[in-house]
Structures are given as structure tokens and as C-alpha cells.
Specification:
The complex is a heterodimer of chains A (about 270) and B (about 325). Chain A is built from 10 helices and 2 strands. In chain A, about 50% of the residues are buried. The longest helix of chain A is centred in the first third of the chain and has 32 residues. Chain A has about 270 residues and is mainly α. Chain B is α/β, with parallel strands linked by helices and about 325 residues long. Chain B folds into 2 domains: about 220 residues, P-loop containing nucleotide triphosphate hydrolases (Rossmann fold, 3-Layer(aba) Sandwich), CATH 3.40.50; about 80 residues. Chain B is about 35% helix and about 25% strand. In chain B, a hairpin with a 2-residue loop joins strand 12 and strand 13. Chain B starts with 8 loop residues before the first strand and ends with a helix. The chains are: A mainly alpha (about 270), B alpha/beta (about 325).
């Protein structure tokens, strides 16, 4: 097993077959699979945006004054784009790999493990797009009601940008799927990695790192650039330097974590 | 190991080696399979049966050795050759998110190129396997026997040339086992080559044209069930009540004359013997009551279990 992301397998028909299989299952169970996770960001918008926002009041962002709910709304989409693929490739992929033996069934066909890895990553990213789209619809409605103030035209671009970024977050999550000994151990990546990472990425509140190492770590974090790019699109003046940073960091994360996921999953599933 | 020539063989494996954590699980194994024949792979737990199967159907890469299907190397022609291979694993890998019919349909989509009459074939399989009345139900609502039927139906959905079945009847009741035997016989009659592993000796004897017995990752016997029993065990098995014989005397005699200790099965000692050894045994233990019967593959398993005790790590 060599260390390679196996990018050439990404457009393969077998990767698509894995994606389509997951999509078919999802469509069969969409009420339970889609509604609760999609509604969770709406709860966050109401609780943090309206509830907490009433206490926070106006904030300064890039020299301009914005109300808290308008500040956190783009961060909410970024958090959804990060968290949905991360948790999908953690929990759902683990269940398919370990409990349902779906991967074992696939491996008895012409589908190879490298296609399963790319299929799972792509599917998890697509789930992020679906949930982010729901959040965007809610934000558009809230904007129309005057609850927040954002440039709604850019909402259409957010899920697309999220799909590309979601790949790297899904690959990141899949590495832990291959590493955790049992589903109980998921608490480690969830509570010690996923949730803290989402919170320290300028999603719900701004972080101004004075330490050079922390500042460098923040620059290497695509969630931070995603949140700031979304903010630039929805409450700023359109795409800014974070677009380039997002593209660069996402590409690096994807290469690193897709490579790691391919290797770790191979070791986990095939025992070699 | 005899040199086996290529010819009408659909599957030829040579010198297969596989190690896990520094331990050789399969150690220089050769296997041949002719079209339309059934090869039974037997051996005690930890003998390397499942690992061998997983290498043959491309799940794991051998550390050494080669696997050829119709002369083509598996490692160089995986995409094509995996389309020739059907796999019915020991554990249920059915997709319980789909119905019986959808399981067959979606499984067919994992193979390219699609069969010319794929839709018709997929539609006919539930009838062929007695699953028509459950076609719209999810597999979890089926009994173990019907789930196994679906596993087999699904494994041949792309019309493979070689079918691998890993302990296909484990956990089934006798009636369901007979059903699976009928299906296997029908597939063989249809010209499909089959490799199966089993713990059930009667199953191996009924279904297999040839048997390879594995122990510690090596083939310790090959041939028809009768040939193997004669070669490895002898023609007879003497059976004694444990209360009727001095155990240490029996064990010493058996070790000295047959090279192997007797097998203890509940309240009986069982000793496989050749005709000459039986004569000597009758003389040495004339004071004991014993019966003589023909050896079975169960006796072979007991012998192998005694010769190759399970690794405590494997037992865990």
C-alpha cells in the first residue's frame, strides 16, 4: 500500500457507484436522514443569533458595524459545511464499514477500496452541500423578514464553494473512522477535534490570535478561511483574499487527509 | 507438491503466501479448480481457509505466489477478472437499506460491462432462488435460510465463472442447509466452478468433487474425500469406551504404532488405523471391547486438530 491520494480514482464509475448507493439510501430515508441535521443550524441561528445576539448587540468587523446575527450567519453556513461532512464520514461511514458490512459487500465486486474511500468522501461533502443549502434558504427568509442583513445574491454560491471545501473535511473525518477502535471512541475526534475546531475558526465569534504560532495555525485552517470568505460575500464587499487561502488550504488538506484516509482505511479494512 | 499443468483449469494458484503480524497464515499453497467442478477447502479454525479465499477473490494481495484465472494473472487484470468472480461471504453483507429485489439490482450495478440481458436476469433471480414472494421486503425480514439464498443469488448476479462460498451453511437449520446444497448443485450443473469452505464434513463430501485439506496454512491432503481418508487416516477407526481401557497404555501404543495419539470424543477413544494396524491393535487390546467403523472427514478434522492445536492468540 503506497501513500497516495489515488486522485485518478475520483472520476471512476466505481466511485460514482458508491456515491449513488449512499444517495439512494439517503433518498429512501430522507425524512430522518435530512430533516434533523438540517434543522439543527436553524436552532443555532435562533438561539445564538436572536437569543445571544440580543445581549451582544453590534460588533465591529473589518471596520464596519454589524449586528451579531448578521455576523454569525455566514459562520453558521461555514460550520455546517465543515461539520456535516466531518460527522458523516465519521459516524455514517463507520456504520457502513463496521456494522452494516456494506464495504465488504462492495469489495466482493469490481469496486475497490480506493473507490469506496473517494465515494464516501464525495458523498459526505454532498451531504454538507444539502444541509448548507437549507441553512441558506433559512438565511434568505430571515433576511426577507428583516431579522438579519446580508447580500442574499451570494447565498447561491455558498453551497458550491462548500462542496469543494467539504471534500477535505470529509477526508479529515474518514482518517478518524479508520483509526477509532470502536464507535464509543468517536467521542475523541468529535469532542476533542471536531467541535473545538469548528468553534475556533471565526464561525460564531471572532478570534484575534496575538501569538504567531496560533496565527499561523489559523491561516492553515480552511474552516477559518471559509467562514471569513462567506462573511466577505454576505456582509462585506464580495470575494477577498480568503478565497485564495481557502483554495490553497483546502487543496493541501485534501491531499494530506485523502492520502492518509486511503492508507489508514486500507490498513483497517484489509488488515495490511 | 505435484506440478499441476494449465489446461481446462479455470483457476490456478501457485505458491500463495500470506502473513499477518509476522505470522504465516498461508504458507506456499497451490490450488487448482476445473470449470464446472467444486473444490472443498477444509481445515480446523486458523488453518488459513478464509485468508486463502480472500486472496483468491482479490480481497487481499498475497505476499508471494500468483493467482491465474484462465491463464490471466489476477494482479495484472483485476478489473476484468473480478467480473468473473462471485463471492458469497461467511457473514451477511446484504444491504439492509434495500429490498431483496433492489439488493440484486444495485449489486449488478457494481460490475462492468453490464450483461446484455441484465434486467431480465436480475428480474428472474428471485424466482430461481425462491425469493419472489419476498422481493419487496428488506432482507432483515427474511429467515436465515432465505437471507443465505439472497446472498448466493446476489453473488451470481453478474454470471460469474467462479463462485467462492465461505461456510455457506453455517448457522442454518437442516432444511435450509439442504436448500443451499440444492442451489450449489444446480450452479455446478450450470457449469459454474465453485470453491467452498465448510466445517460440515457431510457437506464437503456431498458437494465437492475434490477436497484440499489445510492445516497451518499448508495443504496436508488433496483428492476425493475417500482418497484423502485412506491416505491420511487409514481404512478403519477403532472406537473404545474410555472406561474400558487404560488411557496411558492406549496413548503409548497409538503413538508408537500409528505415530499419532488417539482422539478423545466425550466418553470414547477413537483411533484411525490401517488394516495391519487394526490387526496389531486387536492383539494388543484383546481384553477390551471395541467397535470398528469406516473413517469419516470428522476423524480427519480431529486428527488435524490434535496435530495443529489452535494458537491461543487465534482462539481469542
Amino acid at each position: 500500500m503506497s501513500w497516495s491520494p489515488r486522485l485518478r480514482d475520483l472520476p471512476d464509475w466505481r466511485t460514482r457507484a458508491v456515491f449513488e448507493r449512499n444517495a439512494q439510501v439517503y433518498l429512501r430515508n430522507w425524512r430522518t436522514a435530512f430533516l434533523p441535521p438540517a434543522l439543527e443550524p436553524i436552532v443555532s441561528l435562533l438561539a445564538f443569533g436572536i437569543g445571544l445576539g440580543a445581549y451582544v448587540g453590534a460588533m465591529k468587523w473589518h471596520g464596519q458595524s454589524v449586528d451579531y446575527i448578521s455576523y454569525m450567519a455566514p459562520g453558521l453556513v461555514a460550520q455546517t459545511v465543515f461539520a456535516t461532512p466531518f460527522f458523516e464520514s465519521l459516524y455514517s461511514s463507520y456504520v457502513r464499514m463496521f456494522y452494516q458490512k456494506t464495504w465488504d459487500g462492495l469489495l466482493a465486486t469490481q469496486v475497490e477500496l480506493r473507490h469506496i474511500v473517494w465515494g464516501e468522501i464525495t458523498w459526505a461533502s454532498a451531504r454538507g452541500v444539502m444541509n448548507a443549502s437549507v441553512v441558506c434558504v433559512v438565511l434568505a427568509a430571515a433576511n426577507a423578514l428583516g431579522v438579519l442583513h446580508i447580500h442574499t445574491a451570494w447565498l447561491l454560491a455558498l453551497p458550491l464553494i462548500g462542496f469543494l471545501a467539504g471534500w477535505c473535511f470529509a477526508a479529515f473525518g474518514l482518517c478518524f473512522t479508520a483509526l477509532v477502535p470502536s464507535i464509543d471512541h468517536m467521542n475523541f475526534p468529535v469532542f476533542l477535534v471536531g467541535i473545538p475546531l469548528g468553534l475556533i475558526s471565526n464561525t460564531y465569534f471572532p478570534i484575534d490570535p496575538h501569538n504567531a504560532i496560533l496565527a499561523a495555525a489559523m491561516q492553515a485552517n480552511p474552516i477559518y478561511h471559509l467562514a471569513e470568505l462567506y462573511r466577505a460575500l454576505l456582509i462585506g464587499n464580495g470575494p477577498d483574499v480568503h478565497l485564495a487561502w481557502l483554495a490553497g488550504t483546502s487543496a493541501i488538506w485534501l491531499l494530506v487527509f485523502a492520502t492518509a484516509a486511503q492508507t489508514l482505511v486500507h490498513r483497517r479494512v484489509l488488515g495490511e | 507438491m505435484a506440478d499441476l499443468a494449465y489446461g481446462a483449469k479455470i483457476l490456478i494458484a501457485r505458491g500463495l503466501v500470506k502473513s499477518y503480524n509476522g505470522k504465516r497464515v498461508v504458507d506456499g499453497l497451490d490450488l487448482d479448480l476445473g470449470a464446472g467442478s467444486v473444490l472443498g477447502l477444509l481445515g480446523p479454525n486458523g488453518a488459513g481457509k478464509t485468508t486463502t479465499l480472500r486472496m483468491l477473490y482479490g480481497f487481499n494481495e498475497p505476499d508471494a505466489g500468483e493467482i491465474r484465472y484462465d491463464g490471466k494473472l489476477l494482479r495484472d487484470n483485476r478489473d476484468e477478472l473480478k467480473g468473473w468472480i462471485g463471492v458469497c461471504t461467511q457473514h451477511d453483507t446484504l444491504d439492509h437499506d434495500f429490498t431483496v429485489e433492489q439488493n440484486l439490482r444495485i449489486y449488478a450495478s457494481y460490475f462492468r460491462p453490464p450483461l446484455p440481458a441484465e434486467n431480465r436476469r436480475v428480474a428472474a433471480l428471485p424466482d430461481t432462488f425462491g425469493l419472489a414472494e419476498f422481493a419487496k421486503q428488506p432482507p432483515r425480514e427474511l429467515s436465515g435460510g432465505y437471507q443465505r439464498r439472497l446472498m448466493i443469488a446476489r453473488s451470481i448476479v453478474q454470471k460469474p465463472r467462479v463462485l467462492f462460498m465461505d461456510e455457506p451453511t453455517t448457522g442454518l437449520d437442516p432444511a435450509a442447509r439442504v436448500d443451499v446444497w440444492r442451489l450449489v448443485s444446480a450452479l455446478r450443473a450450470d457449469g459454474m466452478a465453485i470453491v467452498l469452505t465448510t466445517h460440515y464434513m457431510d457437506e464437503a463430501e456431498r458437494l465437492s468433487d475434490a477436497i484440499t485439506v489445510l492445516a497451518r496454512g499448508k495443504a496436508v491432503a488433496r483428492g476425493t474425500p475417500r482418497e484423502i481418508l485412506g491416505e491420511v487416516l487409514g481404512e478403519h477407526v477403532a472406537v473404545l469406551d474410555v472406561a474400558d481401557v487404560d488411557a496411558s497404555a492406549l496413548q503409548m501404543w497409538a503413538k508408537a504404532r500409528t505415530g499419532n495419539p488417539p482422539a478423545r470424543v466425550l466418553d470414547e477413544w477413537q483411533i484411525p488405523l490401517t488394516a495391519n494396524q487394526l490387526a496389531a491393535f486387536s492383539e494388543a487390546f484383546s481384553h477390551c471391547r471395541f467397535t470398528v467403523r469406516q473413517p469419516t472427514l470428522d476423524d480427519l478434522f480431529l486428527r488435524l486438530a490434535i496435530e495443529s492445536p489452535r494458537d491461543p492468540e487465534e482462539a481469542r
